Amino acid sequence: MTAAPAPVSSTAAGALSAFLRGVERRALVVAELQCGDPTVAEQALVAVMRAFAGIASDLPMAQWPERFWSLLVHRAPLREPTAGHWPAPLEHLAGLTPPARLAFVLRIGGGLDEAAAAQILDLPMADYQHALADACPRDAHGNPDAAGWRALAEQVQLRIRDLPASRLQRLQQPVAAPTSQQPDAASWRTPARPDAPAQRRPVKRQRGRRFPWKGVLIVAVTVGVLLGGAAWWKHARQAGAPLADTPEGAVADAGPVKVEALPTDDLPTVAPTASPFAASDAAMLADPDLPTARDADLYAWFAAGGPVPVDESQAQPSRPEPATAGLETAAADE
């Protein structure tokens, strides 16, 4: 049972068609040299192309080569080929076991490197290299024949290059013949078209967007709860902080201070005591020369011939008189 091609875009369909055109020539030669029957090889390749077209749209393009060759080499006619026929230049392939022959044609005909070919065949690298060694021609002494290997590789490349175009055209045949009730059958490469365009559901136009009162209310309530909790926590911390931080023996009451008048009845009466200096102070205060004694520093300065103080209530000269001017005048007057 073959997979039907899935609907793909025109770009993907073009990429798929270009990929198959680029790989079909080598793939046909690989299938033919592996099974030894051109008809069986064409049938196997057509089945692989149909299956690949059905899954290609689900794969990245970078995985297309690996998946295509994996589908081809796992076909029964290639895994377990029956008796076939090989031309004279390639008679060496008839004497190889199917695994060794498949390893050879995939490496030379498919143009794959050893790592990619081993991964496609699900073989470890050592097993794949061992299969290639079994496929290598031997000389008379049983040693690998490098010239024989190059000759086989040249014959395979020549067969790929000279492949008739008619055989490639047969690979593009439609899946089934057209009938009166069906449209013309296109090639299986053409992506399938949907039977009818999907009916689009009418899109309801949204009316003017209403203000999200519910969301705003939820946000407001949440903010109010948070603010209330923060205020309560702050008040609780302030109320409990003095009790926790008060040292032992200290007053922790933070209430208002009460003021009360103390009773004066029980206060003791203290008699005023006379100062021992009261008599001497009274004699000094009664002395008539006390004002002169209080200005003794002024008279001492005047007797020493000090300068006369400047009267700051009047305008001052730009150049002040020297300090010795008054002394000289006083000396001259004498």
From TrEMBL:
Keywords: Membrane, Transmembrane, Transmembrane helix
Regions that span the bilayer: 211-233
Lineage: superkingdom: Bacteria
Start-end of Low complexity biased regions: 189-200
Region Disordered, residue ranges: 171-207, 309-334
Protein name listed in UniProt: Transmembrane protein
The organism's taxonomic lineage, starting at the top: Bacteria, Pseudomonadati, Pseudomonadota, Gammaproteobacteria, Lysobacterales
